[in-house]
Amino acid sequence: MTGKPRPKPAHAEKPLAGERVLITRAKDQAGSLAAELEALGAEVMEIPASYAALDATLNNIENYDWLILTSVNGVEALFARLEKLGFGPEKLLHLNIAAIGPATEEAIEVHGLPVDVVPEKYVAESVVEALWEQVRGRRVLLVRAKVARDVIPEELRKAGARVHVVEAYETVVPEESRARLHEVLSDPRQRPTAVTFTSSSTARNFVALLGSDDPAKALHGISLVSIGPVTSATLQELGLHVDVEAKEFTIPGLVKALAERK
Q: pTM of the full predicted structure?
């Protein structure tokens, strides 16, 4: 007599069941990543972040003449905050806009705004060269999504511009959160099995938060998951080994890489 097939256990369809994943990402941006990880069975922990600096700048955006955006992530963060504050893209229409490359230019134009300058080479020095004659006496806002070299602000100030740099978001860690991180890392029952990194800034901020002379030792046995090669390079500069790197440099790509690592 053949019986009915036994149902699969609920966790069989959840490849991340039993995983504890620490998200190093700005809180307002962590929702989709957390949701995707939780849908696959992971327990998710988050580090809070603040958009206070960017929000304050956008509330006074009429005081600027030029806007420089150096990445697609920066564009996405800027327009997400505009929407959150109740503004539309028209809030930026008075600005001359520079994009560091065609991908960033396209991301801006999706929102209906024209891009005035795209340098021939997609590096900071080329941005400076393209803007040198146009920014004297002007107020320039540089929005960047990660810790970066200061070539653009330093050189444009030499050209006579008044440059304000704002990170798309800043990781803000109250002392109790710092203590909580050390607690979970030292407790085997709470210790995360993986930490995700979605940008170079999240990597640097996390290591600063960790406050360890030997971050690799502090994170021993935890899988470090990177969204792409730039973030991986930063982690390696910080003395950390990258266990998993997404093949597609997106949040779904990162989640897929983590789910398939076993």
A: 0.57
Q: Do 69 and 143 form a contact (C-beta atoms < 8 A)?
A: yes
> Could you count the other beta carbons within 10 Å of the beta carbon of residue 154?
12
Given a contact cutoff of 8 angstroms between Cβ atoms, the answer to whether 199 and 231 are in contact is: yes
Sheet holding 162-167, edge to edge: 96-99, 66-69, 139-144, 162-167
226 in Cβ contact with 250 (< 8 Å): no
8 Å CB contact between 71 and 144: yes
The pLDDT of residue 262: 65
Q: Which residues, in sequence order, are CB contacts of 86 under 8 Å at separation 6+?
A: none
CB 68 within 8 A of CB 140: yes
What's at 63, amino acid-wise?
Answer: N
* Measured CA distances, 160 to 124, 157, 164 (Å): 17, 5, 13
Instruction: Report the DSSP beta bridge partners of residue 44.
Output: 21
- Block residue for tokens 């779904």: 252
pLDDT digits (tens, 9 = 90+) for 68-106: 998 887 888 899 889 989 999 999 999 999 999 898 999
